[in-house]
Amino acid sequence: MYRLHIANKNYSSWSLRPWVLMRHLDIPFEERLTPFEPGSNWTAFREFSPSGMVPCLEDGERAVWESLAIVEYLAERHAGVWPIDDEARAWARCASSEMHAGFSALRSLCPMNCGVRVKLHHMPDALAGNLARLDELWQQGLTRFGGPFLAGESFSAVDAFFAPVAFRVQGFGLELSAPSMAYVERLLALPAMQQWYEAALDEPWREAAHEAEVQENGTVVEDLRRPS
């Protein structure tokens, strides 16, 4: 059985991507969660990940790190990771790569913190630009391939890559077009996403650096995390 190494569900957007994909596609795996620690996580994460980062997938003696590499590794072994239609598959790979490498303002100004609701201090131009591109990209996929997911009828890797964005939209009250907001709600309603979210609310850990990232850019108006 695969072993998937992740960090805190409340914070780790990169960990969410392969986790939600594997859960949704019923690909069996053992979860290993190593919480973020103050300062560097390099030593702890290097115990299982060559890059010293999460996520990392173990398949026997083989380690596969980086979320995009993990997805491609799974796609070689399991159906449904990418769309069957070659046009949809090409688009899905492009959109996933764009998310993997881009949207830096969205990442830095609205870090994933599942359990809190935040009011931004202001809307920087860079963030507004990221949201406009996100909206454009999502509507393109939903329109071209007919929905309800980005590349057609079925949830696939491209949706997994944008799953952390759904938590960011929810947490920071970000505004997108009606079709994009409906897509966010579909993602948040998935059983695998609900599983992740509920586990995030139950986590006992509060990591100072991740908490500070939120407070630098907004005011926490509600904390829904359950006390340990």
Question: What's the SSE blueprint?
Answer:
Blueprint: E1 2-6, H1 13-24, E2 29-33, H2 42-45, E3 56-59, E4 62-65, H3 67-75, H4 86-101, H5 104-109, E5 116-120, H6 125-145, H7 157-172, H8 178-189, H9 191-202, H10 208-217, E6 218-223
Parallel strand pairs: 1-2
Antiparallel strand pairs: 1-3, 3-4, 5-6
Helix pairs in contact: 1-3, 1-7, 1-9, 4-7, 7-8
Task: Tell me how many strands there are.
Answer: 6
- Separation, N- and C-terminal Cα atoms: 31 Å
Number of helices: 10
Percent of residues in helices comes to 40-55%
Computed over alpha carbons, the radius of gyration is: 17 Å
- Strands across the major sheet, in which order? 2-1-3-4
Described by strand count, sense and barrel closure, the largest sheet is:
4 strands, mixed
Stretches where pLDDT falls below 50 for ≥5 residues?
Answer: none
Mean pLDDT figure? 97
Task: Give a description of the structure.
It is a single chain. The protein is α+β, with helices and mostly antiparallel strands. It is built from 10 helices and 6 strands, in the order E-H-E-H-E-E-H-H-H-E-H-H-H-H-H-E. The strands form 2 sheets. The chain has a 4-stranded mixed sheet, with helices on one face. Strands 5-6 form a two-stranded antiparallel sheet. 41% of the residues are buried. The model has no long low-confidence stretch (mean pLDDT 97).
